[in-house]
Design a protein that fits this description.
- The protein is mainly α and about 90 residues long.
- It has one domain.
- It contains four helices and no strands.
Length: about 90
């Protein structure tokens, strides 16, 4: 059951939450606030308050925290922008 919930969260909710954020420069405390959402979600899903258990569950299920996902999305956006820019110069 947890796998289904995590799959739904990662495919439906996370993209909505992170939509457009890759174009902004966020402060460290803002990134930590986004990560807090995932940590609390895992705490409730697995009924634990131990952050080490949460980190282990996130790793086992391959669930990246928002700051990692956002960095990946930002790199993808800037790579796409760079390719577009380079193609316009040619």
């Amino acid at each position: 059951m947890e796998e289904v919930i995590l799959h739904l969260i990662s495919t439906k909710c996370i993209p909505i939450l992170l939509y457009g954020l890759e174009s902004f420069s966020l402060c460290q405390y803002q990134l930590k606030s986004l990560d807090f959402v995932i940590d609390r979600f895992f705490m409730k899903l697995f009924k634990t308050s131990d952050i080490h258990v949460v980190a282990d569950c996130q790793e086992l299920f391959g669930f990246d925290i928002h700051s990692v996902q956002l960095a990946r999305r930002r790199k993808k956006l800037f790579d796409k922008f760079e390719r577009y820019h380079d193609s316009q110069l040619s």
